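During the reporting period the student researcher (J.K.) took over the structure-prediction task from the postdoctoral fellow and processed the backlog of single-chain submissions. One of the processed entries is reproduced below for the supervisory committee.
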Amino acid sequence: MNTKADGSQNSYALLLADSWQDYQLLDSGDGMKMERWGDVVLVRPHPQAIWPKRKDGEWSGWDGFYHRSEEGGGQWQFRRPLPESWNIRYRELTFRIRPTNFKHTGLFPEQAPNWDWCMANIRAARAAGREVSVLNLFGYTGAATVACAAAGASVCHVDAAKGIVQWCRDNAALSGLGAAPVRYIAEDCQKFVKREVRRGKRYDAIIMDPPTYGRGPDGELWKIEEHLWDLLKECRALLCDSPLFFLINGYSTGLSPLVLANLLGELLRDSGGSIAAGEVGLPAQRDGKILPCGHYGRWNADGAGHP
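J.K. obtained the following structure tokens:
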């Protein structure tokens, strides 16, 4: 189902990341998920996996287990020596994986359907003779940036953490895109967007993955409920006269997919096109159970905002 760009209809679609070969969700339950990253099996917390896990021995074959601390944070336990990092592939893309102190691995595999969607939009525009520029805000380690660059777009990648931006550079190089037209910006996203507006910069498409709460490198406070709409309005001024697409990813449990659809409907009510919103999920190898992993809202100019 789709919603009109004026937000007059709501829609929902579940996107499954089911085209992986180097990654697999093996099982989930009791607040944990068991995943295969290449030939490494990791067990990590997942707050929405509140159903009971099965008690037989299949959960015993892990290489790394992240134990959450009651005081916050946690630490990894490894059963065998692992490399500091290793690579996995998705289609023609290659990503560096590394277990971090905050349980993350540097990649959100559930986002693969959105990478596919962005690439399809860019390739269609390029086939019609259009050059495409993409702004990726809160870009993290750059999976979406690398996907867009691989499809032929020029990309501006922005994240507040310098080390994370370097990780994006590494992923681009691993994917054979070290010389691709990508700008790597380590800066607070709100500040960067305001400056781009003052410069009169325009983009054909915008991707963002705003956090629920955070601080920029100079202590700038971000709360998604208070600041997202203002950021979106600034981003609207950055879109060209005939924008291609707009994608918002979300992991905040306080915002539903329909909130993202409504925001995009307000933002792009005079632009035509269509909007789709919903959840992204990972199917478990063991029993096919779908693990909810976040939500999205996306607008598409040609009326094909649906999956």
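The committee noted the following: The helical segments are 112-127, 143-150, 162-174, 189-199, 224-238, 257-267.
J.K. will present the remaining backlog at the next meeting.
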